[in-house]
Design a protein that fits this description.
The complex is a heterotrimer. Chain A is about 35% helix and about 25% strand. Chain A is of the alpha/beta class. Chain A has two domains: about 230 residues, P-loop containing nucleotide triphosphate hydrolases (Rossmann fold, 3-Layer(aba) Sandwich), CATH 3.40.50; about 170 residues, Rossmann fold. Classes of the chains: A alpha/beta, B mainly alpha, C mainly alpha. The interface between B and C is large, with 45 and 45 residues.
Chain lengths: ~500, ~350, ~325
């Protein structure tokens, strides 16, 4: 029997990095295959090759027995391959129908057949239980609705093999469950599916087979029902997972207190009636599906967005209206959500980035001139203390790996002995080794008495590191629960907005 | 074909880039010269002798380079912060106008008056660019178009002033403004030439700009804001203050160009006193890869082309517009050359 | 003062509005097409100059007027291809490349003109487009001379507005262009090539710009001289923002602007004692004001000026 999909000996290199190393993989019709691996293992690269975004250096792809020309998304689409990207490939200013129709008609056509296209779209939407409004502008849709459009795009082009890249990264648990139900229904209609994930519980629950990638190589294939989460975890990382463990200790006095904070952005409330307290020696974890106010919370605590109502105090001092520099001087340290966009200036050197937020302090400047030798010495110390590899003070920081860049960002924060640390998605996009290093540093800071607020989309990380946890939903915070009470069930409900017996979230 | 970022840029490439760009531009322009029926090598020989062949030509070339250094610095500073100041031409003229206007009857000795007038020129240029900068910061209006349109407005204004309130009654035929007082004419640097000490001021300005960009907090903040505005904001750098500061500095430098040109060369203001110093300054800045030191060298190159082309034109009959062609081509070839220093080309 | 009002009642003013608007209409449409696909083309001033020179030169050398426009369009497209090559596959700064193209195209135009044309005391002239009187319609009082006695390029400009509006809104090609300006990754993900689309849009847009320039030398005037484009290219760039990147509004913007320009020209002779330069300044000042008014609400194509690099997010 012909496989629906065969990847044979796929190899892809980027400069000195081998992203995919002789990877072989099959998919049968009606099957759901999970592609599992930690960040940087090469899963997305492999799927990008399948879909034609990249051309493989070696190896071949066969779809229903026919060889697929490489590096050609059009050929992939015509062969029946569709992809739901992790970062949606949608244009916000255009309508759902526009986004779906694009590319389905020859460019030489004199008139677009919009009403026919709309009929076809609605038929597909009905068939697969993915309701949409064709004339709605994509920018007005929620994340879940946008994902539906991404899926419909592929189905509209008659995809028979559907690739989904981290499909639940932006979904709340109920939505994620619904998605997997929909995917299972699709297989009954004859589709074959591959989904990329690094979440073990999902893989165990939703897939028929699992393929594990590690360091660019295919290390194992298993039938899901015959494997276990711990076996897969070990295959994924290659050794016993060794993340540092939080030790219980006595929590100190309140350090950062937020009282009834409201943050508005052009009349819309991004944070509403938010109150929390972070004590010395404590990690307070804020969990939630992305898009529920985490960005506003991060901006508030970074000194970038003042509250429209309510107060924020740090060690007794009102810091509500302070900007980044002042809030640092008041004793705060901030690790931003996106290290490339906000954390570092890629073109500048490591030492310049190390002191960028403290340029106007007497330590690093005098009478308007930068004290370069002091800054270089400081950054050399950071490199040593925080084990930043592959760098000297003068290395252009954009050349560092994600993990080492994050170590610098964390280092410049912690070297200042802050009273309070904001850690916003501190391990996003990092491999296991770097994640362990970051966790170790955060726990050490906690042991030294810092008050840490951790915003994370990874439940496992939040539970492992936090003393107490609160969920953020639509800009509001739930009551805190202690880490001992935080089981996945409870957290899932909290993240979906079910906070009391009376709440019934959608 | 794919572009792959280089891990480090070897020094020889940094120097080679502008040289390659210039060579490529000259090579392409040679085609146009040949099309005119003239031997390109002979033509370029004429250009070189036209610029370097005699004491007079060298001093002429350096006199031409002086305002280019200033406008080049103005563009380099602004572009570093991603402030697209295309208004160098207008800023040059307001600096010139203010200098001629104030300097006509200012009753102070030269050693006070000259710095004062330089300052006035800087203030005028700074204020002119502050307008578009403010519109960008407050209303989000792109400064490219506003600075460009201001150039046209300023030239008209200059015409208005020198045909009206600032008219020089002694000018024959061509309207000119009243001249600055003789007290405030810049002393010559080389006797019996037009080369004046403004060149030294220009080189000093280049050194000062280098110092500001490389060593001061403001310079570091400017560079960070230009490279990654959101990271700079996260680090607490005030983008509005930085942009406005850059605008004032850039405008001041271009205004100073006009001021020094009036005090050093023309004495009065005419609508034709600038053969596009403002726009050429942009080319100078790009050829210098926005480095203040490179600006001096690039200004000399551009001045050489312009002065040499005049001589070349007289000798060979080729339209002197070939100079503008060469300079414009250099800008484009430099863009490509910069690309090759930052990226490796991979199959 | 009453003279100023009387001027408004003069049909020749309104006929002039359409005439003065023509190069702007081409310019705005061209810039709009480039920007809709995601590329800012600051080469417009130079491309219009090149179009003016090449169109005129073709006619001077014996070609029919329409062929002159075609020659201008081709020259414009070539300049556009240069800009597109630098900014799209090579991903270089759209600002700097555009400025370079303006400088280069202008310089090249002046150089070639000086080289190929004998200029005496007065620049040589050609036989320009004559106004085309549409039978019957041009006899209607007021509307007749204004709308139906224009030169051919003006009718072409109006036709171009309709074509561009239709193509952008109703054809698959138009959708592809719009999408490329909003999210080129989305275009690639649907099997199309955003690089080719951008290059094509920039070339076509530049052709339109050049025709706008050619109008100046083959219709409005009948000779070429340096500096004749007078900033109309920059004004077109401003008008694109004012038009919200829509062809219909672009037409309105161009007409509005042309009205002020035509009016100002006539006011100069009507009102005495005011230096003429102040009148000439008005169009530029107005453009800046227009930009400020619409800036906040501007719905910029989301991927404008973002270079597209395959595989990069």
């Amino acid at each position: 029997m012909t496989h629906a999909l065969e990847l044979n000996g796929i190899t892809k290199r980027f400069g000195t990095l081998t992203a995919n190393d002789d990877v072989t993989l099959t998919l049968d019709q009606g099957e759901i295959l999970a592609l599992l691996g930690e960040n940087g293992a090469g899963k997305t690269t492999l799927m990008n090759i399948l879909f034609g975004h990249y051309a493989a250096d070696e190896g071949a792809v066969r779809v229903f027995g026919a060889e697929l020309p490489s590096g050609n998304p059009r050929a992939a689409i015509e062969a029946g391959v569709g992809m739901v990207h992790q970062h949606f490939t949608l244009a916000g200013n255009l309508t759902v129908l526009d986004n779906v129709m694009l590319g389905s008609e020859p460019l030489t056509r004199v008139r677009s057949a919009r009403s026919d296209a709309q009929d076809k779209l609605m038929q597909i939407a009905d068939k697969f239980g993915l309701p949409v409004m064709p004339e709605a502008r994509v920018s007005t849709l929620s994340v879940g609705e946008r994902q539906r459009v991404e899926i419909l795009k592929a189905l509209y082009r008659d995809a028979r093999i559907l690739i989904l890249d981290e499909p639940t990264a932006v979904l709340a648990r109920p939505e994620a469950i619904r998605l997997f139900e929909t995917l299972r229904d699709m297989t009954k209609e004859g589709l074959s599916l591959i989904f990329i994930s690094h979440k073990l519980h999902e893989v165990m629950a939703a897939s028929d087979r699992v393929a594990v990638l590690r360091g660019g190589k295919m290390v194992a294939e298993r039938t899901t029902s015959e494997s276990s989460a711990s076996e897969l975890a070990e295959l994924m990382v290659g050794r016993k997972v060794e993340r540092p463990v939080r030790q219980d200790h006595k929590i100190g006095a309140p350090v950062l207190v937020a009282n009834k904070i409201r943050v508005e952005d052009t009349d819309k409330a991004r944070l509403d009636d938010v109150s929390f307290t972070v004590h010395a020696g404590e990690i307070l974890g804020i969990v939630g599906v992305s898009g529920n106010g985490q960005a506003a919370l991060g901006a508030l605590l970074s000194g970038l967005m003042p509250p429209t109502a309510g107060e924020l105090t740090l060690a007794g001092q009102d810091v509500s209206d302070l900007g980044p520099r002042e809030v640092i001087r008041a004793g705060a340290g901030r690790v931003p959500e996106d290290r490339h966009a906000e954390g570092v200036v890629g073109e500048l050197s490591l030492w310049e980035n190390a002191v960028l937020e403290r340029l106007r302090t007497p330590e690093f400047s005098r009478r308007g001139f930068v004290r370069q030798s002091a800054a270089r010495a400081y950054s050399a110390k950071l490199i040593e203390r925080f084990d930043i590899r592959g760098a000297t003070p003068d290395t252009r920081i954009g050349l560092l790996s994600g993990g080492n860049m994050q170590k610098l960002i964390l280092g410049r924060v912690l070297a200042n002995n802050p009273r309070f640390v904001l850690a916003n998605q501190p391990t996003r996009g990092l491999d296991e080794g770097a994640i362990a290093a970051v966790h170790a540093e955060l726990l050490t800071a906690r042991a030294d008495g810092a008050a840490i607020l951790l915003i994370s989309e990874e439940l496992e990380e939040a539970v492992a590191l936090s003393d107490r946890i609160q969920a953020i939903v639509k800009g509001r915070l739930s009551e805190p629960i202690s880490a001992d009470e935080a089981d996945p069930q409870r957290l899932g409900l909290m993240m979906a907005g079910v906070w009391t017996e009376d709440d019934d979230a959608a | 074909m794919r572009l792959e970022r280089r891990t480090n840029v070897p020094l020889h490439l940094v120097v080679l880039a502008p040289l390659t760009a210039v060579f490529a531009a000259l090579f392409l322009a040679a085609g146009l010269i040949a099309a005119a029926g003239v031997n390109p090598l002979a033509a370029y020989a004429e250009m070189l002798t036209g610029a370097f062949g005699s004491r007079l030509s060298i001093t002429e070339m350096l006199t031409r380079a002086t305002p280019l250094i200033f406008t080049g610095l103005a563009a380099a500073v602004a572009f570093r912060a991603r402030l697209w100041n295309i208004g160098g031409e207008g800023q040059f003229f307001v600096g010139a106008l203010v200098t001629a206007g104030l300097g006509h009857s200012l009753g102070v000795p030269g050693w006070i008056g000259i710095p004062l007038l330089m300052l006035a020129g800087m203030v005028a240029g700074a204020l002119l660019l502050a307008g578009p900068a403010f519109l960008r910061l407050r209303f989000g209006v792109d400064e490219v178009v506003t600075t460009l349109l201001l150039n046209f407005i300023v030239i008209l204004f200059v015409g208005l002033m020198i045909e009206g309130p600032m008219r020089d009654p002694l000018a024959f035929g061509w309207p000119s403004s009243v001249p600055v007082d003789g007290e405030f004419r810049l002393p010559e640097l080389i006797p019996r030439s037009r080369l004046h000490i403004g060149l030294l001021f220009a080189i000093a300005a280049a050194a000062a700009v280098w110092m500001v960009l490389a060593r001061t907090v403001f310079g570091a903040e400017t560079r960070a804001a230009g490279m990654n505005a959101s990271a700079a904001a996260f680090a607490g750098i005030s983008l509005p203050r930085t942009i406005m500061g850059v605008a004032l500095l850039s405008g001041a430098l271009a205004g100073l160009a006009g001021s020094i040109e009036v005090m050093g060369v023309t004495a009065g203001v005419t609508t034709t006193m600038s053969p596009g110093f403002g726009y050429a300054g942009i080319v100078v800045a790009m050829l210098a890869a926005l480095h203040p030191a490179g600006v001096v060298a690039a200004a000399v190159f551009v001045a050489t082309v312009f002065v040499g082309a005049d001589a070349m034109s007289r000798a060979t009959g080729i339209p002197s517009f070939i100079a503008d062609v060469i300079v414009a081509l250099s800008l484009l070839t430099m863009l490509v050359a910069l690309l090759l220093t930052t990226y490796r080309v991979r199959r | 003062m009453s003279d100023a009002i009387d001027l408004l009642l003069n049909t020749s003013l309104w006929a002039a509005v359409l005439r003065i608007a023509t190069p702007l209409i081409f310019g705005v449409l061209g810039a709009l097409l480039c920007e809709r696909s995601g590329v800012l083309n600051l080469g417009i001033e130079g491309i219009m100059t090149m179009g003016a020179m090449s169109g005129w030169l073709a006619v001077y050398m014996g070609a029919p007027l329409l062929v002159g426009l075609l020659v201008a369009a081709i020259c414009g497209a070539l300049m556009g291809l240069l800009h597109a090559t630098l900014t799209v596959p090579l991903g270089l700064s759209q600002h700097v490349s555009g400025l370079g193209i303006t400088l280069f195209a202008s310089a090249l135009a002046y150089y070639l003109y000086r080289l190929l044309v004998e200029v005496g005391d007065l620049p040589p002239t050609i036989e320009a487009f004559e106004p085309l009187n549409v039978p019957l319609l041009s006899d209607i009082p007021i509307l007749g001379p204004v709308l139906f006695s224009q030169a051919l390029p003006t009718y072409l400009a109006l036709f171009a507005v309709a074509v561009m509006a239709y193509v952008l809104a109703r054809t698959p090609l138009g959708l592809a262009i719009r999408m490329t300006g909003e999210n080129p990754h989305a275009v690639e993900a649907q099997g199309l090539n955003p690089i080719r689309i951008r290059i094509g849009a920039v070339a076509a847009g530049s052709a339109l710009m050049a025709v706008g320039g050619a109008f100046l030398t083959t219709s409005a005037f009948n000779s070429f001289f340096p500096g004749m484009v007078q900033g109309r290219g920059w004004i077109s760039i401003a008008l694109v923002v004012f038009a919200g990147w829509r062809p219909g509004k672009a037409l309105i913007g161009a007409l509005l602007f042309a009205f002020f320009d035509a009016y100002q020209l006539r006011l100069q002779t009507a009102i005495e004692g005011v230096p003429y330069q102040l009148f000439l300044m008005a169009p530029y000042v107005l453009s800046i004001v227009a930009l400020v008014l619409v800036a906040r609400r501007a719905e910029v194509p989301a991927a404008l000026m973002t270079p597209y690099r395959r595989g990069e997010r």
